[in-house]
Amino acid sequence: xxxxxxxxxxxxxxxxxxxxxxxxxxxxxxxxxxxxxxxxxxxxxxxxxxxxxxxxxxxxxxxxxxxxxxxxxxxxxxxxxxxxxxxxxxxxxxxxxxxxxxxxxxxxxxxxxxxxxxxxxxxxxxxxxxxxxxxxxxxxxxxxxxxxxxxxxxxxxxxxxxxxxxxxxxxxxxxxxxxxxxx
Length: 183
Description:
Elements: H1 13-20, E1 24-29, E2 36-38, E3 41-43, E4 52-55, H2 56-64, E5 68-71, H3 78-90, H4 101-112, H5 119-142, H6 156-178
Antiparallel strand pairs: 1-4, 1-5, 2-3
Helix pairs in contact: 1-4, 2-4, 3-5
Subcellular location: Nucleus
Protein name: DNA replication complex GINS protein PSF2
Family: Belongs to the GINS2/PSF2 family.
């Protein structure tokens, strides 16, 4: 069964989180587990207190069962996010962030905020960063040209947010360019 047109224009934030859950992150296991094969690959072995890289979905599952501590990525820190926010507000271009930073940060902060130093400050910085980047996106879309749109360093969630507007706008611009001028 095909989806209605209104549902085909973008992916939901939950679907983006599901896609991001394949991202590998570090954990400190609290249990011992041999290397285990899954459809997406083999992970492990888990040997406390040695760090291990596993997919976010697996880390989330283990964390909810209190069988690991999640090691936040380097970019999920007050210093890094503050620096990115400063760049975002002082430069015209988008700062470079991991492609799925919003989804990964949300999952980690929802499930393992106790493993993240200054989680409340990080949430606040992520919100400020998101707002600054949204403002730049809106400015970029106001300068929309039918032949080119250049918004480098956009992240998956940001692309997903502007996709419906962009598709509609490009359709209208294409029609306007194709219509012969009335003379």
